[in-house]
Amino acid sequence: MADVTLFHNPNCSTSKHALDETKSAPTDTDVVQYLKTPLDRSALLALIDKLEDPPADLVRKDSFFADQELAAADYTTPESVADLLVLHPRLMQRPVLVKGERAIIGRPK
What we know:
Layout: E1 4-8, H1 13-24, E2 29-33, H2 41-50, H3 63-67, H4 78-87, E3 96-99, E4 102-105
Parallel strand pairs: 1-2
Antiparallel strand pairs: 1-3, 3-4
Helix pairs in contact: 2-4
């Protein structure tokens, strides 16, 4: 079992940078391309539980979010965020790094 799990999107420059950093770190890393292998609801809830940030931070509020006519206020609870990301995995913020019982979103606030 790996020391670290990286939820990665190879089309994202920030995610690519995080992947490069894990390659140079002295840890064993599992890389999960979450668009190819989407997380199910229970895995998303477990990930959200490990986040130090509010669950809503795991959702990208980009043009796709707006095109779906979604409202940020509707996605603040772990359950609502997990349900949204099951339907639209591309809305998951990336990269996400998990080590043990702690997860961080690799994006500046």
